[in-house]
Design a protein that fits this description.
Elements lengths: L13 H21 L5 H5 L13 H4 L7 H22 L1 H39 L3 H11 L5 H12 L4 H19 L7 H14 L4 E3 L6 E3 H18 L7 H18 L8
Antiparallel strand pairs: 1-2
Main location: membrane
GO molecular function: serine-type endopeptidase activity
Organism: Prolixibacter bellariivorans
Length: 272
């Protein structure tokens, strides 16, 4: 008779293990192919649909791309710590469905927010082109170009000394159009949207589980950790809309994770 042995808590279930392996392989491939002049990020990262680099498949492929080792490490560490518990509770199929829906939902939510921001930026560009002035350019740069190069401020100052100079008008127009193009061509990479969905799910399924923070090193219940993390992401997303960190993608992963769990749980008192 074969003796039954329950799975070890430290064991890595198949979906989490394969997701970690795939993400690691993609980062290694990105590094390796770059030496041959092949930029995987340009092909597989998620670009805004109005960008010339955009392809529909990027909504999936960007989830397996990362900006560097530390970006990959923290995402995969969270997937290992929290994802394996969810997979053991839900099973591989349901966990994989949850992972991809939250990742795709995060990308969709981020794209929507990006659309709203870029629509506002287009309106500002159109207003500048209609009535170009150094004062308007100064305001535009402060709002849309963080840490601008010194030559940008030299252009503004020189233009103020000669407000009717057509050369400065042309340079200012080219600059605002270049900023719009740059914003449209910012790539998004990482599994963070799905990872934040996993964090949300863990907080909902195991709300009173004690987690130990690293900074500061204090215990906190999972439900408070998730709520606090979500509020921080919302604050940072609103406070720093031009940030290179896709805060609204993180928030989108949590929102879609919450909706999906509520949908699964609509006729039951348990999540599994």
């Amino acid at each position: 008779m074969t003796q039954f042995r329950p799975p070890s808590y430290n064991a890595i279930p198949p979906v989490v293990k394969n997701l970690i392996m795939l993400n690691v392989l993609m980062l290694v491939a990105t590094w390796a192919l770059k030496s041959f002049g092949i930029d995987l990020t340009e092909k597989l990262a998620l670009y805004y649909p109005g960008s010339p680099h955009f392809q529909p498949y990027q909504f999936v492929t960007h989830m397996f791309m990362h900006g560097g080792f530390m970006h990959l490490f923290f995402n995969m560490f969270a997937l290992y710590m929290f994802g394996r518990v969810l997979e053991m509770v839900w099973g591989p199929k349901r966990f994989l469905i949850f992972y991809f829906i939250t990742g795709l939902g995060a990308a969709a939510f981020y794209t929507l927010v990006n659309y709203i921001e870029l629509s506002s930026l287009r309106d500002s560009v159109a207003a500048f082109i209609n009535t170009p002035s150094p004062e308007l350019l100064s305001t535009f740069v402060k709002e849309h170009l963080k840490n601008a190069s010194p030559w940008v401020y030299d252009l503004i100052n020189n233009w103020m000394d000669a407000p009717n100079n057509p050369a400065y008008i042309n340079q200012g127009t080219e600059l605002v159009q270049r900023i719009l193009e740059m914003k449209m061509n910012i790539p998004v990479v990482g599994a963070s949207g799905a990872i934040f969905g996993v964090l949300l799910a863990f907080g909902m399924l195991f709300p009173n589980t004690q987690l130990m923070l690293l900074f500061p090193p204090i215990p906190i219940k999972a439900k408070y950790f998730v709520i606090g993390y979500g509020l921080i992401e919302l604050f940072l997303g609103v406070r720093n809309p031009g940030s290179h960190v896709a805060h609204f993608a993180h928030l989108g992963g949590m929102i879609f994770g919450f909706i999906l769990i509520k949908f699964w749980n609509r006729n039951s008192n348990s999540f599994y």
